[in-house]
Structure formats: C-alpha cells, structure tokens
Inverse folding.
C-alpha cells in the first residue's frame, strides 16, 4: 500500500492552532536508500517527533518520486513494466525507513490518481492565467534509439567551463544550467551516438514573467530561507531567470498532458506536487479536507531538502504555488551533504552504504544519534567520521546515557526491592531557577533548566545544541550517583541510598523524555525500566516520580565494536557490486583483423599533474619504452589523485591519433572501466616492461 506508518498523535483540524506540515525531498524510486539520504529523513523525523511531543499539530508527509526516463530505462533493462519497478523500490524504501525509525504520517507515491488530479488542476490553472506558453524548440533526437533524449540522457562538454562528460541540463563541475542543445559534443547516454537536432513543441512555465520575478524577490526576503541560501538564490534571480520547460516528449514514464497527446509532464512538475497529492491521500483517509492544509493561512508548510535541489524549491516551486493559490512554504530548510571520513561517499572504499546494509551490521539508532550531534540550522556539510562515530556512541549513548539507566534501575531492583523513595523537595520547587549551591534541589533545577532549553532548541532545529544539553543532564545524574555512592549507604542508611537512586531515576526520566525524538526505541526501553510513560515533552513533569515500584532493568544499547565497522564496509562493497546495473549489451562482433589494428601497450606512469581549470583531466607522462615518455591526457581525476598515479602500470592505446583536450595535447589513451568517481584503471596482475604489446 501507499500508506506509511502513522504516529499515534492525531492531527487536529482546528482553526485555533497553527498546523505544521513538514516534507522531506521525495526519494527516487529507482534505487535504494543510502546513509546520505538518511541525513535528511532523520532530521525531518526528529523535528516532527519533537513538535508533536511539544503539543503541536504536525504532519510528516512524503512520497516516492516515481516518474522519469531513468525509471523507464531501468525497467526496460529488467524486462518489467515501470510500475513494477516503482512498486519494488516503494516497498523497499518503506522497510528501510522503518528500520531507522523514520515514521511518516503518510508515505505516498507520485504515480497515483490523487497526484494526477493535483497536477492536472495546477496545469489548467496556470493555462487560464496565461503563465504557460507553447514553444517550438530544438530537441535532441537519437536516430539509433528512435526517441527524443531527456536532459539526463545526453552527455557532453559543459558550454560554460568545458568540463567533460556532463549532463544535458546542469554541469556537476561548475553548477551552470543550460539547454541540452548548448552542450558541446553531445552524445546519447544510451548508445553513445551523437543526436540529431529536431524541432519539437514544448510547454513552458513563464518563470521570468514580471509578476513571478516580483513575487520571488519578496519570497526570498521573507525569512523562509536561511541567510546563506537566500543570498545564493538571490544571485540566480539577479542573473535572470529562464522560463521552465514542464513537458517532455514521449516515450516517457509519467502523466500525459491532457491537451497534448504524446507529451508528458516533466518529472520536476509532478514531483513537488506530490507533496500535495500525498497530503490529499492522508486527508481522505482521516476525514479531513486537503484545502485546510494547502489553501490555509493556518498551515506552516516546511520543506527539508538537500543543497542539490535548492533551485527547484526556492524559485520554480514557490512561483507555481503562488500562481495557483496554494500555501507557500514558511521554511525551506537546506541541510548539508554527507561525507564519510572527510571524503565523498565511495563505492570502491565501501563508504557508499545503503541503509539496509548499515542496519544489518550496526544498530540504526546509533546513526540517528550521531547525525543529531552534527546537525544544526545551517546548511554546512557534515562528516561521518567512522572512528569518531564508534567513540562517540560508546562514550555517550552507552557509557553516559545507558549506563545511568542501568546503574539506577539495577541498584533499585537488586538492593532496594525495586521501589522509588521520596525526594527532599517538592516537584514544584524544581521548576525554580538554580541557585548554584550544589544541593540536590539545585541539581534538579539545573536538569529542568536544560529541559526547557531543549524544548526551545528542537523547533529551531538546533539538534547539536539539544545533544549538548542532554549531555549536561546525563553528567548531572552520573556525577551525582558517583559522588553520593548509594552502595556506601546500604548498611547503615538504606533509605538514603533509595533517595539517591530516586533522584537519579528522575534524571533518567528527563533523559528518556528528551532523547525520544532522536532515539525513540532507546528512550522507550529506558522509560519502561523506570515504569514511566512518555507522552509529551514538558519540563513541568520532571521530578514527580516518587514512592512507587519500577519495572526493573532492561538492557538499552550494546557497544559498537570497530570490527563491526570493518565488516560493514566490506559488506557494502559486496552489496554494491552485486546490485550493479546490468552490463550494456555487447557491441557488434568484429574479426581478429579489426582487433589487430589496435596497438595496446604496457605503460609506466612517470609523472602526473592536474590539467588547470578541469575537474576531470590529468596530464600523464607515460613510459612506453620509447626514447621519451608519451604525454596522455586522461579523464580520471574524479577517481584518482595525481600523486597516487606515479609508478602505476597501465594499458595504453598507443596508435590513437593525437587530440587536444582543454588545450593539452594527448598522444594515446589509457584504458579504464566504469566512470566518474568509481572509475578503475585497467592494470596488469604482474609487472611487464614498458612498451610490451598487449594481445
């Protein structure tokens, strides 16, 4: 089904309270969820959990993005309909999210009747307002594949910075956007043939219309964006906006445009509208009107997204919402990208880790905890430093938090008949400001003070600050237990020991209450051991747990062994190799004489330097057994640093005609497998003399 796990807290459809509708970017139903994706969904999930525990009306809405040519092509390779491929990933995504405690109120899919209705309604409204225009444009037609090529199925050289092997709509090297026909040396990503230019009629949303530009200026200055993001978007606005092509020629997996047979809505038209389509499904299932959420001043719409989709969510999307009268985002929260050990995730190093593989080797709550320690309202990137990850989880979640629950509940259960005692102060007294005198009451007031700070920090997405305050609370409890040493009082004054443990148990109650949005299963198990229930986040509830039995010890968390991380990386490499896309079909057969025209030689790299102004090219000096080294330019800089290449033996096409790349002459080609960051040079399994013929 398309309905994800729902929280117990009900949404109240009342005009007296402001509702918060939170979305995360729609995962693409063409691949697995990985730990980079989980940064966003963890951030959004923690935020919504906290809002609900603070008593606010909040919904977490998401869906799988189920349209586009990549899905169509991948399904074709597998010999299944696109709908079946989407259904497979939709089920997989829901399983993975559940393992990481990501609890959507509704997790839909963009290929749904509800979303189709929304998309067609928006299209008709934009037409009626004169904000759509039909234009004849040059399209890239592949004669071999008999189709117009969407942006992502054209590769070529960026017209702005000359970076090679870029997509047809955006350069990953310099960030420039352009029309596919502007690419230099374009080729079909499916067959490699250069496309032909043919005319085709497309539908454009007039993003550059004066009323849209004026609105977007106001929106950017409205406070909905982080200051650095607003400045970034303002630069696009000042540079001049392009009208947005919202249509694609068939074949295309998506919704057909009602009045244009054979033409389809571009995936970036119906994907963000999937937020509304998924909300409509939730509303229908719960007896609510979607207009009360998406056409209401009482709703705060908040999008949590990554840096890679800022343009769509801060320009195109708000302009469309404004034009059709939908609720505008009150916040577009941009988070940073994930690195692992300071580098981009890598399949070859095993750090491109799918969620399912991580969960098989490491408790998923550990990753939630670690991300929370790193996340803030800023858009800075965050690093998963694996050694630090192990150290932090063991030192904080295990030794600091879990240990306090364990010491307290075990001591009460084993030594003090499993009952809490009383405290030498009233619960209400703990609500006053701390005095600094170090008494038990003063410590309780410090815990309450930290709790109130946490309640203010969660809605501001100051998660790293939340985790610091939780550390303060845990330190108070642990230091109190260690200093007061209840075991020392058992013989002469067991009731004093009971009071000490009762205070520590109340500190644990605070920890469980405020840790719940971050590590819900850990918090619930801790609360069970104390016999308390977690229903809301409120410092006013603290230090009222007295004179009653507790449930007893429950083990909360296991230490992480570094061997588990090593096993995780190994398993990640193996899983990605196994899950690799099917190899392309072999080219047409050739005879031996044709193969013999290639002069393949063993080469020894003597020197290597980056080609200036290029992110992909490295200039190599290769010994081929000739009087002087041969200069070869190779597009391998994404996968290799220049300094690590010196001394490597490679296979070189020695009789390739000379060519210039970025103004540097290349007299040959090194053989490699793969592409981009996962490219691997073809090497020999034993040493051979430079110039040895490969045959």
């Amino acid at each position: 089904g398309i309905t994800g796990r729902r929280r117990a807290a009900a949404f109240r459809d009342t005009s007296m309270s402001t509702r918060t509708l939170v979305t995360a970017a729609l995962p693409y139903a063409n691949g697995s969820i990985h730990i980079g994706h989980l940064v966003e969904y963890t951030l959004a999930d923690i935020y919504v959990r906290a809002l609900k525990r603070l008593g606010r009306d909040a919904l977490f809405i998401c869906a799988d993005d189920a349209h586009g040519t990549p899905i169509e092509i991948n399904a074709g390779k597998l010999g299944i309909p696109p709908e079946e491929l989407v259904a497979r990933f939709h089920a997989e995504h829901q399983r993975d999210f559940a393992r990481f405690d990501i609890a959507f109120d509704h997790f839909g899919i963009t290929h749904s009747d509800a979303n189709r209705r929304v998309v067609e309604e928006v299209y008709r409204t934009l037409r009626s307002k004169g904000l759509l225009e039909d234009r004849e444009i040059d399209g890239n037609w592949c004669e071999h594949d008999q189709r117009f090529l969407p942006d992502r199925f054209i590769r070529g050289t960026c017209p702005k910075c000359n970076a090679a092997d870029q997509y047809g709509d955006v350069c990953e090297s310099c960030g420039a956007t352009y029309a596919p026909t502007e690419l230099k040396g374009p080729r079909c990503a499916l067959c490699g043939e250069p496309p032909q230019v043919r005319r085709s009629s497309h539908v454009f949303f007039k993003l550059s219309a004066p009323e849209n530009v004026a609105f977007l200026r106001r929106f950017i200055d409205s406070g909905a964006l982080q200051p650095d993001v607003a400045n970034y978007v303002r630069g696009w606005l000042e540079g001049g906006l392009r009208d947005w092509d919202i249509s694609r020629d068939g074949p295309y997996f998506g919704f057909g445009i009602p009045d244009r047979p054979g033409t389809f809505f571009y995936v970036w038209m119906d994907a963000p509208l999937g937020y509304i389509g998924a909300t409509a499904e939730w509303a229908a299932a719960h007896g609510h009107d979607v207009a009360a959420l998406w056409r209401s001043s009482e709703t705060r719409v908040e999008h949590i997204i990554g840096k890679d989709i800022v343009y769509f969510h801060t320009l195109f999307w708000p302009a469309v919402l404004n034009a059709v009268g939908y609720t505008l985002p009150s916040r577009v929260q941009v988070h940073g990208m994930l690195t692992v050990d300071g580098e981009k995730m890598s399949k070859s190093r095993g750090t491109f880790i799918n969620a399912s593989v991580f969960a098989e080797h490491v408790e998923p709550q550990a990753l939630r905890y670690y991300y929370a320690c790193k996340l803030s309202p800023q858009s800075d990137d965050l690093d998963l430093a694996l050694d630090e990850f192990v150290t932090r989880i063991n030192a904080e979640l295990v030794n600091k938090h879990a240990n306090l629950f364990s010491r307290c509940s075990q001591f009460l259960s084993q030594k003090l008949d499993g009952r809490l005692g009383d405290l030498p102060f009233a619960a209400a007294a703990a609500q006053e400001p701390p005095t600094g005198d170090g008494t038990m009451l003063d410590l309780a007031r410090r815990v309450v003070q930290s709790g109130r700070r946490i309640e203010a920090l969660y809605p501001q997405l100051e998660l790293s600050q939340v985790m610091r305050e939780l550390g303060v609370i845990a330190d108070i409890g642990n230091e109190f237990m260690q200093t007061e040493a209840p075991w020392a009082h058992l013989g002469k004054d067991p009731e004093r020991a009971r009071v000490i443990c009762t205070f520590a148990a109340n500190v644990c109650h605070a920890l469980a209450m405020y840790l719940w949005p971050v590590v819900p299963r850990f918090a619930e198990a801790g609360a069970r051991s104390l016999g308390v229930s977690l229903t809301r986040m409120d410092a006013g509830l603290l230090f009222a747990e007295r004179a009653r039995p507790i449930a007893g010890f429950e083990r909360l968390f296991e230490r992480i062994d570094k061997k588990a991380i090593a096993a995780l990386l190994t398993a990640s490499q193996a899983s990605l190799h196994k899950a690799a896309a099917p190899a392309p079909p072999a080219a047409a057969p050739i005879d031996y004489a044709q193969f013999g025209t290639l002069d393949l030689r063993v080469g020894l790299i003597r020197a290597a330097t980056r080609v200036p102004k290029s992110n992909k090219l490295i200039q190599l000096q290769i010994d081929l057994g000739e009087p002087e080294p041969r200069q070869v330019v190779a597009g391998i800089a994404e996968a290799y640093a220049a300094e690590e290449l010196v001394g490597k033996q490679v296979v070189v096409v020695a009789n390739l005609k000379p060519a210039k790349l970025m103004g540097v002459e290349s007299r040959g080609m090194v053989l490699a497998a793969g592409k981009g960051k996962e490219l691997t040079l073809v090497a020999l399994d034993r040493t051979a003399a430079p110039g040895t013929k490969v045959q």
Observations:
- The CA atoms of residues 164 and 359 lie 37 Å apart.
- Confidence is low (pLDDT under 50) at residues 1-16, 580-585.
